[in-house]
Amino acid sequence: MSALPATLSRAAQGNDPLVARAWDVLETVPDPEIPVVSIRELGILRDVRRAADGMLVVVITPTYSGCPAMPQIAEDIATALEQAGLPPHRIETVLAPAWTTDRITADAREKLRAYGIAPPTGRCGSDAAVAGRVVRFMPKPLAAPACPRCGSAHTERLAQFASTACKALYRCVDCREPFDYFKPY
């Protein structure tokens, strides 16, 4: 899996200790809907930089434009920065380029699996080689995801939507356990 654009931004800001500290603090902010992964690991956290006025700017992108967790994520970011004693900040929410499941780190995919959520399969083609193309929100049908509990590929979709709109509900035919599948988009 390639490095996240946010990680590249972090490297570019590496010579500013305040920005580096903010990245470290924000690494600990969990996603409110899936608390085993951080907002950075999911690719929601895009950038942290210092503005000309010295204020920290935190750039986030929702997993989809109607994501109900965004106000909570912004509040969690503010709380984490304030508790760390970091200077005033502002949070910018950007919608373009759109978030895709390609932004989820390999570590986060494994954490999702261990938590009982099948991580997205395939790629949406949002890497630099195809940056000029439109992101496909209805990807070509892929093979059913493997069960995150027993690893069986013998699974079936029960519902297009699960605990959140970004996930579908599946069941393993072998172990009979239901599980969420993080839909690729």
Q: Report low-confidence residues grouped into runs of 5 or more.
A: 1-10
Secondary-structure element pattern, one letter each? HHEEHEHEEEE
Average pLDDT? 85
Reading side by side through the largest sheet, how are the strands ordered? 4-7-6-5
The total strand number stands at: 7
Distance between the termini: 16 Å
Largest sheet: 4 strands, mixed
Structural class: alpha/beta
Shape: elongated
**Rg from C-alpha positions?**
17 Å
By DSSP (H or I, 4+ residues per run), the number of helices equals 4
- The percentage of residues in β strands lies in 15-25%
Helix content: 10-25%
How would you describe what is shown here?
- The structure is a single chain.
- The longest helix is centred in the middle third of the chain and has 14 residues, at 70-83.
- A four-stranded mixed β-sheet has the order 4-7-6-5. A three-stranded mixed β-sheet has the order 1-2-3.
- The protein starts with a helix and ends with a strand.
- The chain contains four helices and seven strands.
- It has helices at 5-12, 17-26, 70-83, 106-115, and strands at 45-50, 56-60, 89-93, 117-118, 155-159, 167-172, 178-182.
- Helix 3 links the parallel strand 2 and strand 3 (89-93).
- The chain is α/β, with parallel strands linked by helices and 185 residues long.
- Helices cover 23% and strands 18% of the residues.
